[in-house]
Amino acid sequence: MTTITPNALCFGDGFPASGTPCRIQVEGHGLTITCVLDAAESRSESVVFSDLAVSAGGLDHDQLVVKWVGPKGERTLYLKNADVIRTFRQAAPDQLNAPLERAAQRVRQVRHRNRTMWSIIGGIILAVVLGLWFGADLLVELAVDRIPVEWEQKLGESAYRDFLSGQEVMKAGLAVTAVEEMTHRLVEQIPNNPYTFEVTVVKSDVVNAFALPGGYVVVFTGLMGKAESGEEVAGVLGHELSHVLQRHGLNRVVKQLGLVAVVSIVLGGQQGLAGLMKQLGVELLTLKFGRAQETEADLTGLQLLHRAKIDPAGMISFFQRLSEKDEGRKEWLSTHPMSHVRAERLNAELAAMPKNVPEPFTFDWAKVRESLGAQPVIAP
Amino acid sequence: MRSEILYPGAFPMVRIELAAGEHIKAESGAMVASSSTIDIESKMEGGFLGALSRKLLTGEKFFFQTLRASRGSGEVLLAPTVPGEVVVMELDGVNEYMVQKDGFLAGADTVNIESKMQSLGRGLLSGEGFFILKIGGKGTLILNSFGAIHKIELKPDQEYIVDNNHLVAWSMTTSYNIEKAASGWVASFTSGEGFVCRFRGPGVVYIQSRNPGGFGAWVKQFIPVSK
Question: Which of B57, B90, B94 should we substitute to test contact with A (largest number of A Cβ atoms within 10 Å)?
Fold first, then answer.
């Protein structure tokens, strides 16, 4: 028994639905089809070219379908082997050329259509990726705009309470009264303020202050101890309040949450996001704002100080002083990198503002510092 | 190799006997038990890129298991992850099948598996995704389904309509178009069928009696929502 290597499938009456493997041999007069019926038996059949009808078929329309009606009924061959198809085309008489060409044309059309489709899809994907890459900030802003202030407050509050529970909060005293006065004067100047600001003084040597989304601000006594005047602390407060007003924290959270979240906020479905945002609350405490956000907070903070008639010069000098290399001031440096460019920009902005006469605070800063146990300021 | 389906029905297991030196490939995690003569190797079918494309594109596992009777003949017991029937097919070297991404359970080493890109319409609407498995070669192929497997035999030009979520495998000699289940868009979706595949013979189409997506949606309603 010789083993037959099948190169086509034959369908028809008496054959299984999945087709019978067969071997096609192209000869001068037509085809000889040898079907493998089982391991021991095969059956040959010959058919002349003039009896054949050809077309393209199969899942991808890339197979040559050959049909004829033989003595045992209709037979259909599915040919995929490129060599057999080529030999078939070469040997086929003229009357089969037209249908063969039509079949080949059909295969080319399908291939061309698929290629075109995938090129278009590839192009669209590329455009979307590029669009997202360059338009991500716009998307984030769109998403942030859709988040209600109440949400922001809930998010900030949970992080704020978590943080304060592990800290020594100053409830009363000169420092607290002073910070309250500064906050009041600044907040008064915010038009259409949607936030209820809550500023807490925390006893700690850390030279820093931070703001959480929703209007929660923490000032460390370490920072107050380094300030030479109330105006300097008010400058920091103005800067932090601006972060809240510009929704910088929320902006960063949305960026961290990623595109999926952005899309879900833009398209609706805020419910599922609430839990996720709460988890991120803790991360908010270590939040670092971007350079652009720092600059924006600087400028709007400066304007706020100006409107509140608090001397803005304190803000600039304090920021510069804190940014000078000093071991104890690392905290502020890491979150508020101060460059000369930044200071110069603030000075230029200040120079462009209409002059007004600053109104001093009612508290005595020296006494406030004293109450914090800070060393008295020695005049240079 | 010789295979036998144990406990046919919803929770089948396949016993495969391997002669010394023989090996098969199986879906990662498919092995339940084996003789001590069988070694398990992890193999990236089609090389790294092939495996990566299969993982990324079809969602199939990155690695296939190779179960090799390297220390003498032995047997391997395999089972699919989901409850449902398994079917053993003998590939003849000419017939090729498209298999939905979770359908492959195991096959002889001479069986070739590759991921294949579908056309745009089929990719978007068939419910199988853009990339599915194309399985050819010669030897035993074992497929699994969710629910029972039903074989539809199509004569040349015979048509049959299948809900796209119930497809398991279909031969490359068939062709199909995706269409709305009913004549109107609203009726198509309110009928619960959405899109259907109109298959045209010749060839065979294996379908599963349960819809995995539909089952998932049904189970979802009983899962408590985490607070």
Answer: B94
CB contact at 8 A, B90 and B97: no
Nearest to A223 by CA among A268, A178, A265: A178
- Across the interface, whether the CB atoms of A6 and B171 are under 8 A apart is answered no
Q: Are residues A360 and A225 in the same domain?
A: yes
Instruction: Give tens-digit pLDDT for A151-198.
Output: 888 878 888 888 888 888 988 888 999 999 999 999 988 888 889 999
Domain containing A51 — which CATH number? 2.30.29
Q: In angstroms, what separates the C-alpha of B63 from chain A's closest C-alpha?
A: 28
Instruction: Kindly provide the b/e burial profile for residues A302-337, where b requires at least 16 CB atoms within 10 angstroms of the residue's own CB.
Output: bbbbbbbebbbbbbbbbbeebbeeeeebebbbeebe
Examine the domain organization and report whether A327 and A211 are in the same domain. Answer: yes
A130 lies in some domain? no
Could you tell me how many residues make up chain B? 227
Domain range enclosing B97: 2-220
- Residues of chain A positioned with their CB less than 8 A from the CB of B137: none
**Residue B225, in any domain of the structure:** no
Hey, which residues does B113 pair with through a beta bridge?
B135
Cβ atoms < 10 Å from Cβ of B32: 12
Give the nearest partner residue to B173 out of A5, A74, A78, using CB atoms: A78
Residue A127 lies in a domain: no
Please determine, for residue A375, whether its predicted confidence score (pLDDT) is greater than 80. no
For residues B185-193, give the mean pLDDT: 65
Residues A81 and A171 in one domain: no
Distance from CA of B42 to the nearest CA of A (A): 32
> If DSSP states are collapsed to H, E and C, what string results for B74-110?
EEEEECCCCCECEEEEEEECCCCEEECCCCEEEEECC
Q: Closest residue of A to B205, CA-based?
A: A18
Cβ-nearest to B203 among A17, A80, A113: A17
The more confidently predicted of residues B132 and A277 is B132
Question: Are A121 and B120 an interchain contact pair (Cβ–Cβ within 8 Å)?
Answer: yes
> Nearest CA to CA, how far is A24 from chain B (Å)?
12
Binding-site residues on chain A for chain B (CB distance < 8 A): 5-9, 11-12, 16-19, 21, 36, 57-61, 63, 67, 74, 76, 78, 80, 113-114, 117-118, 121
Q: How many domains does chain A have?
A: 2
- Tokens 């259509």 correspond to A113
CB B44 within 8 A of CB B61: no
- Does residue A115 lie in a domain region? no
Of the ranges A15-19, A286-290, B55-59, the best mean pLDDT one? A15-19
Q: Give A-chain residues touching B170 at CB under 8 angstroms.
A: 59
Mutate to test the interface with A, among B173, B174, B226 (most CBs of A within 10 A): B173
Nearest chain A Cα distance for residue B152, angstroms: 9
Instruction: Give the CATH number for residue B192.
Output: 3.60.160.10
| Residue range(s) defining the domain that contains residue A341 | 147-371
Answer whether residue B37 is part of any domain: yes
**Which residues in chain B are closer than 8 Å to A9, comparing Cβ atoms?**
94-95, 173
Number of structural domains found in chain B: 1
Domain boundary among A77, A107, A137: A107
* pTM to 2 decimal places: 0.61
